[in-house]
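To: structure subgroup
Subject: Chain for Friday's discussion

All,

I'm putting the inputs and outputs inline so they're searchable in the archive.
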Amino acid sequence: MKKIDNSLHMEPKVVVVGGGTGLSVLLRGLKRFTPNITAIVTVADDGGGSGVLREDLGMLPPGDIRSCLLALANTEPTMEKLFQFRFKEGRLKGQSFGNLFIAAMNEIYGSFELAIKEASNVLAVTGKVLPMTLENVTLYAILKNGQVVKGESEIPLKNKEVGSRIERIYMEPKVSYPLDEAIVAIEEADVIVLGPGSLYTSIIPNLLVNNIVGTIFDARAPKVYISNIMTQPGETDGYTVLDHVEAILKHSREDFLDYAIVNTETIPVDSLEKYIHDGSEPVILGDKDEEILNRKGIKLIKDNLVDIKKDYIRHDSVRLSKILMKIANKDDI
């Protein structure tokens, strides 16, 4: 177990909103600085092993929840390997043990919310991991060409196929509510963080839950958006930092954010090759992005935030966490 770093003189209450790899990377850094973390995680995904369990068992998808639990876990390396293990053969091919564990907990306790709490106890999780809602929601995207795409996993595929940007996303059923615990965490937070992660399929779905935008806006904590380092094929092709921010504002309200954190570090060409081949490119600041963000009352924080491991481009979670701690503690940035 890593020792909590108290060098920043406080242990602020941090709420992070999102899903996917980006969120779990950030959480690994944050837990070094504060134990007071609440991760509010999307349950709109319907692809991969999570999608199979969702369809077969009628449960909420556990994949993003599992990744966040492991990121905040204080357990033996063997246990983490076990939870991340994916079966390679047979009917369980592609399924992770961690997903099956959460599915079993869901059956035992008859509640997804309780299943996550019990899984958190088993893994000695720092902070809390909460689903964005307990409703069985389906994500839809309206493309700029008017086409409607159903399903989180289908959105980037169809978008890439037809080459039309996403205009807006919405969820069915229209009525879905956040957990009471999530509301309390937001109200008590010292900083509220959106991202990093897939813009339309990990971050924004959380903002579609009833009353959540108003609750976040009314909270006393500063609201921070962490821009992705790379664009996502079929989702944010050609997006600048401003395009990402404006998508958040379109699905919330114009005065929703206080800060935007962006990477300005140059990424080595050899690390970019695989991403460019897959249709991804660095998210850049457009010529007037900073000026426009300032006019919107959003303070831009620029820093070298790249961490490359095994050819994967990720955020430097420790450097990012230090910035968030300064915002939470109202220190000068």
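Points worth raising on Friday:
The first helix runs from residue 20 to 30.
The CA atoms of residues 271 and 312 lie 8 Å apart.

D.
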